[in-house]
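Shapes recur. Our protein:

. . .
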Amino acid sequence: MTTTGIILLAVIAGLILLLVSVYNKLVALKNRFQNSFAQIDVQLKRRYDLIPNLVETAKEYIRHERDTLEAVISARNEAAAGLKAIGGNPANSGGMAQLMGAEGALAGALGRLNVVMEAYPELKANENMMQLTEELSSTENRIAFARQAYNDSVMDYNTYRQSFPAVVVAGAFGHREDATLLEFENREVLEDAPKISF
């Protein structure tokens, strides 16, 4: 074999190794952000399971606030449907947009419920209500941490997919689109108490 043949073989082998390396890293980064979303999925389902218990406990005390309670349950059901629409595939950008919108509506409904609960000291003092609100608060913190980990993984994936040489071959390996960050509505806006008059 000639020197030119050896050089050509070395170049081809190098290109193949580069392609394998790029492919493996894309797969690893995609799996990482999908796993990170699975952690969010678990925490969101936990929150969705807690909300009916919270509403049921509150019903005993705030019967005439039925609209608020129904809005919370409706928003919870819509958020659960949004999570189901993703189908465990966080690369589904349409499903992710639906989930983000539904989560914003749920956060707003829960905020209104918290405002209503402030007017009922006996409800706030109820042991079940205190336990449920503590669990919900803990779950919200877990969701925030899981969302941050997910968004970090998405950023790593998107950055690698857009950089050279991955950008040249990513489409051929099925990595055509950026993953979508999970961004809930601005918490400061959601925490502004709506005006309520009795």
User: Anything to note?
Assistant: The mean pLDDT is 84. Residues 3-59 form the longest helix (57 residues).
